Amino acid sequence: MTVRPLVAGNWKMNGALESFEEFSKIAAGYDAALAEKIDMLVCPPAVLLAKFAEVKNIAVGAQNCHSAVSGAFTGDISAEMVADAGGTYVLVGHSERREGYGETDADVAAKAEAAWRAGIIAVVCIGESLEQREAGETIAVVTEQVTKSLPDASNSENTVVAYEPIWAIGTGKTPTADDVAEVHAALRKSLEERFGEDGSKIRLLYGGSVKPSNAAELLALPNVNGALVGGASLKAADFLGIAEVYKNF
Fold first, then answer.
1. Residue 151 domain-assigned?
2. Catalytic status, residue 66
3. Which of 34, 38, 123, 232 has the most neighbouring CB atoms within 10 Å?
4. Is residue 163 part of a domain?
5. Measured between alpha carbons, how far is 248 from 244 in angstroms, rounded to an integer?
């Protein structure tokens, strides 16, 4: 089963209007040869979303959304607002949201459903802490997260799953290739058991200190259908260096 890869960039709370120049370089580098191979996505801060969406050859998305359509939720944005600004994806359940804002699997599932309601794709993020990994709980933790964070209506058209070991985000540390392969195999099995044949088509991204120097090894692993890239996505040369690995596949 061939699954079209997705290379996504999460800019987190970085960037300004002047960053449009760097984003434009990324979009320009997403040429016809690369577009034949993969999809590319950049998730900038919400205040930059509409500006970035003016560039039509590359997808843009938000880093979070509220589960409600509208209301008295100061500082939040709805999935409908993301779509109205030109976004076609939204990250939900990133570990920084789970840890820093207390988001639960149920919250994440509600946000995924909100994304679909607005006609956009949910990128559902999961991952274990260092303590959980050292306790040998990784597989149990991530399979429970993916089960509880994905609503029953999840499918390969409306949902992407991104596995990011929390301890590898922004630290420069990465699991071994064997570790990543083991987790992605377990996630794939869980998805297939729940969603049948379509579970084999849901894209599984790896995230956590992905950079040009390790991208080829990580992206070649079974059941790794792309990457969710943090810091390296802020620089066109680095982000494209990761994506262009697929030109050799």
1. yes
2. no
3. 123
4. yes
5. 8
Q: Which of 22, 94, 103, 244 is catalytic?
A: 94
d(CA 182, CA 185): 5
Question: Do residues 124 and 153 make contact, with C-beta atoms less than 8 angstroms apart?
Answer: no
128 tagged catalytic: no
SS3 70: coil
User: Of 80, 96, 164, 244, which one is the catalytic site residue?
Assistant: 164
Cβ neighbours of residue 161 closer than 8 Å, sequence gap 6 or more: 123, 124, 126, 146, 150, 187, 191, 202, 203, 204, 205
Query: Total domain count for the chain?
Result: 1
Q: What is the mean pLDDT of the chain?
A: 96
Task: Place 1 in a pLDDT band, splitting at 50, 70 and 90.
Answer: low
> 76: domain CATH number?
3.20.20.70
**C-beta separation of 8 from 226 below 8 A:** yes
